[in-house]
Amino acid sequence: MTDFTYAMDADGVVTLTWDVASKSMNVMSTAAFQQLSDMVDRALADPAAKGIILTSGKKDFAGGMDLNVIAKMREDGGAAGIFNGVMGMHAVMRKIERAGMDPKTLKGGKPIVAALPGTALGIGLELPLCCHRIIAADNPKAKIGLPEIMVGIFPGAGGTTRLVRKLGAMMAAPFLLEGKLSDPKSAKAAGLIDEVVAPQDLLTRAKEWVLSAKDADLVKPWDAKGYKMPGGTPYHPAGFMTFVGASAMVHGKTMGVYPAAKALLSAVYEGALVPFDTALKIEARNFTSVLMNPSSSAMIRSLFINKEALEKGANRPEAPDQTVKKLGIIGAGMMGAGIAYVSANAGIEVVLIDAAQEAADRGRAYSESILDKGIQRRKVTPEKKAEVLARITATTDYAALAGCDLIVEAVFEDMKIKADVTARVEAAVGPECIFATNTSTLPISDLAKASGRPEQFIGIHFFSPVDKMMLVEIIRGKQTGDRAVAKALDFVRQIRKTPIVVNDARFFYANRCIIPYINEGIRMVAEGVEPALIENAAKLVGMPLGPLQLVDETSIDLGVKIAKATKAAMCDAYPDGAVDDVLFWMADQGRMGKKANAGFYAYDAAGKRDGLWEGLAGQYPVKDTQPDLTEVQHRLLMAQVLEAVRALEDGVLTDIREGDVGAILGWGFAPWSGGPFSWLDIIGAPRAVEICEGLTATHGPRFETPALLREMAAKAQTFYGAVATKAA
Predict the structure, then answer these.
(1) Helix (H, G, I), strand (E, B) or coil at 434
(2) First vs last C-alpha separation in the chain
(3) What is d(CA 435, CA 437) in angstroms, rounded to the nearest whole number?
(4) How many beta carbons lie within 10 A of that of residue 533, not counting itself?
(5) Spatial separation of the C-alpha atoms in residues 602 and 597, rounded to whole Å
(6) HEC string for 34-59
(7) 187-196: b (≥16 Cβ within 10 Å) or e
(8) Buried b vs exposed e over 63-95: b needs ≥16 C-beta within 10 Å?
(9) Sign of the CA dihedral 280, 282, 283, 289?
(10) Residues near 25 by Cβ (< 8 Å), separated by ≥ 6?
(11) d(CA 64, CA 159)
(12) Is 59 in contact with 118 (CB distance < 8 Å)?
């Protein structure tokens, strides 16, 4: 089966239509690249062919390269295999760019235009960049850009070299270093593409351009005599300052732990000093280096391959389709309101219930406020707003839940209140309805005792804010049945988020790992470690927020509440008394975190962080002798990683893919590492045991090596190697 089809009309215009039958969006494979190359050769060799339109048979152009292909290139051929494969792609794209023209006169080529009906990402933009013109349909929902940096690589099929030569290093930086995506009109304004036309005129306009193009229209600026890079090369004063600034920006944003960003900057800098074809080789060399780096491999595996597998239901139990048709949400606070918005926006009918009508209306108004912001940014139409809001019924009447096939309860974290809600809901819904509780700490099996249908009772833990956070943690209680799990997974897929499924235990998986991270930071404050050292050590190892900032964001009073509940449950086994001393003292001072404009950080009147709070040193003086940076980083990382391993040992986590993806999406665990299990594979189990033993000797049994990790070290095993992906 071919991914490209070839058709020539009576006027001699060849249309190459990209349409991968097995995919909802086109992705490029090795075989497809060869098909494209052969068809371009055919058109260039045919005297009757006047030019080529490259377009898509789908509503979008392309979603990028199939990263499974890139991963296989690395496995099969190592560095040489990657480099040769990339240079092969460069050869095809350079052939498109030169289009049969005489290399000396730059005349006699055949015009090639890319006609983009919708989204064009990664190779889906790199390919158009080597065409002679890019025309896009006026589709506000379409995204155009090069997001490779977000999965640990950079545009390595010529996109880096071409975009810098097209826009200059300064203007190209947001698209290359930040993965910035634009709608078609914004992309045209930025210089990424050439034209935006009405969708119905896309192919007509493309054909007009092909038939009217002249030799000069086919010559890329970098192939023309006298070409000068916009903004100057590194040898030019303006260009020099651009690269100095870019280097500082990259280090400031990546803290030096993301190899792709540094490699991209090297490719841009070195490539700017040499002719175009040499620059492509430099780009390929740097791209190969990135793909051979274990960090990039881990990021690709977790953020693309494993994430996609989980989203497609890799761990879904066998059960009939469980698509949600009518959703009931109990509790219209921030969490319930957020769930209502993402569900209605995904086309699901929603009943939003609260104890007071005013509160229910306020929950519905939350969706309205998000949609209004979308209208202001021209991402949402008034018609779309009306359509989404029409799906949300805000009420106090439980009878409105009739016909719901899924309920998500999102009331206060109180066993008694949740039990009362469970009974009221089950009296109002049909016998087949699945009941999900949104909780971050309370055991699902205990909450299910209030249900007359425990096999239909499940936990669904959303992260706040719901509309922005991509992870959803699904918790299977002791009596939860497969249909309930399938229902939860199908629902999460409907609202376009990423699910992980874990077994019931206190704090489940995400909070089980993130609370020790926060606690370790607070514990160091009590020990007299400089707060700035704690926060910067975390950021320098790739954590998006330091532990003190994170507890400010989530609120200190919530931390106090969790600590009291945990102590009550664990009694004498409770290990965090030293943490509570600091946390409770902060609460007594009225410093409840960001929401109170007072926490471990000071805040200005607008709520912006204004440095760490100086008053902390009065209660917890900073010691004269400070630990070294590496020790602080190891404490912060191992506090999280060891809990992840213990969760796997205990059977809470059953799939290391879920452990890695959940860690990155749930609390931002050092994305460069690919997640806690990938990080352990990068450093090796023997080194991890060595770190644990050192920390245990100095800081106590919370850092003791889990038996699984010690066994892996003895056998020289890795999580993604000798240990099965899915735990037994």
Answers:
(1) strand
(2) 38
(3) 7
(4) 17
(5) 7
(6) HHHHHHHHHHHHCCCCCEEEEEECCC
(7) bbebebbbbb
(8) bbbbbebbbebbeeeeeebbbebbeebbebbeb
(9) positive
(10) 58, 60, 62, 63, 119
(11) 12
(12) yes
* Strands annotated E in 562-607: 601-603
CA distance 582 to 707: 32
Query: What amino acid is encoded at 15 in this protein?
Result: T
For residue 28, give the amino acid letter. M
Residue 721's pLDDT is what? 86
CB 111 within 8 A of CB 133: yes
φ, ψ of residue 78 to 5 degrees: the values are 60, -150
- The pair phi, psi for residue 665, each rounded to 5°, is -80, -30
pLDDT of residue 358: 96
Structure tokens at 327: 């959703």
Q: In terms of DSSP bridges, do strands 434-437 and 457-462 run parallel, antiparallel, or are they unpaired? A: parallel
Instruction: Encode pLDDT of 590-637 as tens digits.
Output: 999 998 999 999 999 888 999 999 999 999 999 999 999 999 999 999
Q: Which domains are assigned to the chain?
A: 4-292 (3.90.226.10), 326-504 (3.40.50.720), 511-585+614-715 (1.10.1040.50)
The 3-class secondary structure across 462-508, one letter per residue, is ECCCCCCCCEEEEEECCCCCHHHHHHHHHHHHHCCCEEEEEECCCCC
Residue in this structure with the two tokens 């999965």, named with its chain if needed: 151
User: What string of DSSP letters covers 650-662?
Assistant: TTSB-BHHHHHHH
Element (H, E) at 520: helix 510-527
Return the amino acid letter for 35. Q
Is residue 244 packed enough to be buried (19+ CB in 10 Å), middle (13-18) or exposed (0-12)? exposed
Sequence-distant (≥ 6) Cβ neighbours of residue 509 within 8 angstroms: 473, 500, 502, 644, 647, 652, 653, 658, 659, 662, 666
Strand 112-116 to strand 144-145: parallel, antiparallel, or no bridges (unpaired)? unpaired
Query: Which positions ≥6 away from 75 have C-beta within 8 Å?
Result: none
CA atoms within 13 A on the CB side of 458: 29
Compute φ and ψ for 613, nearest 5 degrees.
-70, 120
pLDDT at residue 236, as a whole number: 56
SS3 at position 548? helix
- Residue 617: count of CB within 10 angstroms of its CB: 14
Establish whether the linkage from the previous residue to 465 is cis, with ω within 30° of 0: yes
Euclidean distance between CA atoms 546 and 610, whole angstroms: 15
Tokens coding 318: 């066998």
**Residue reference for tokens 């005792």:** 449
> How far, in Å, CA of 700 to CA of 613, rounded?
29
Contact 116, 137 (CB under 8 A): yes
153, two tokens: 């690589």
Task: Compute the distance between CA of residue 437 and CA of residue 407 in angstroms, rounded to an integer.
Answer: 8
Please identify every stretch of the chain with a pLDDT value under 50, giving residue numbers as ranges. 240, 723-728
Residues 705/698, Cβ–Cβ less than 8 Å:
no
3-class SS of residue 87: helix
Q: What is the DSSP letter of 717?
A: -
- Helix, strand, coil shares of the chain as percentages rounded to 5? 55, 15, 35
The answer to whether 455 touches 472, Cβ cutoff 8 Å, is no
φ, ψ of residue 93 in degrees (nearest 5): -70, -30
What are the tokens at 237?
Answer: 């004063």
